[in-house]
Fold each of these.
Amino acid sequence: MIAERALLCIALAGSLLTGFALAADVPPQTMTPLPDTPAARDFALPDMDKKIHRLSEARGKVTMVNFWATWCPPCRRELPSMQRLWEQLRGEGFAMYAINIGENEETIFPFLLSTGVELTFSILLDAKSEVIKQWPVVALPTTFVLDREGRIVYRAVGGREWDDEKLVETLRALLKP
């Protein structure tokens, strides 16, 4: 587990350095389109209340899947903007899952309270880091956007301001029938 965290931190540092070199202290507010649009791997993970959520239940919706951890500074910074995005899009055929990697409720709960924002989207627990190994995650945070058919159409490595106008516009384009 420590080796996995070290590798993720090294990969994240490399990706963020590239972004910082281009835009001072703000990573680009873009997502990378995935031209081959691979099918997303299904998962069944518990939330903080032990309710199981399956990705397949979101089929028919545009879905955002974010992998994060409390020890990851960009992850910590982007969660409030994810809530603001959720508040904008939740009634429009949009689903959002934030999957915490390798941590338990005792670690996550106090952190969530410290954000100062009530997070009302689904926070899921990949306590054994099994789901993350099935997805093309290269660093934390990594976020994927799936189309209505469950195909990965975008990936974002590193933190974002998810309520940025350009990102919201890209997501709304996917939401159009």
Amino acid sequence: MNIHKRENTLISSPTGSGKTLSAFTAILNELIQSAGKDLIENKVYCIYISPLKALANDIEKNLNTPLRELKEYAEKVIKGSSKKLDNIRVAIRTGDTTAKEKASMLKKVPHIIITTPEALE
């Protein structure tokens, strides 16, 4: 509920309990609605902080897979509608992210940034 109200939200619970999927579902809902109306802006809508070890699994299972499935569904329901969803950008920023990659993120701002606690220092 807080995420839908655009309030900063800290979600803390045991591994595997669904917090990542819950957080991404709320933000994807907003991004998809904005993209469908051509209202998506060149700004960060969500920063997701996760330990590096869990990062790849979280992204694939709880963000990229649902986003890909939503694009496929949108294409079946309304031909060409998935093109607007292609505008939703996701980026990973860790301690290993190069200066060039960081600069690129400033030009084409990711809507969702996945990062690690170390990268916030």
Amino acid sequence: MDGLTHDQLALLRAMLEERLAALAASAEQVGSGHELAVEEVETSPADKATVRLLNDLALEAAGHNAAQMGIIKRALAKFDDNSYGECEECGNPIGFSRLQARPEARLCIACQTRAERR
């Protein structure tokens, strides 16, 4: 955790916990993901297609939410083993400004740039 002060770490942890709580609240509103967002009823074929599309979009959003929650939980776990703020690829510190923008960042800017070019 070189380069990050105690106050910076506390701020970043609070940001991650806040995001996790917001995602959890959103997931609670949507339900378990097994329920249909819109019930299919006897309607025209065009309406049925719309209902299926809305249900597919709701399931996709629930999947995205679950994935985001997993990423944030992994970032929070790094506080426990003192590896938060270290690049997973090169081991160098991730800059505070990058972590402020993306507190769940796993890579420093240089490694992220290389990964995106691949």
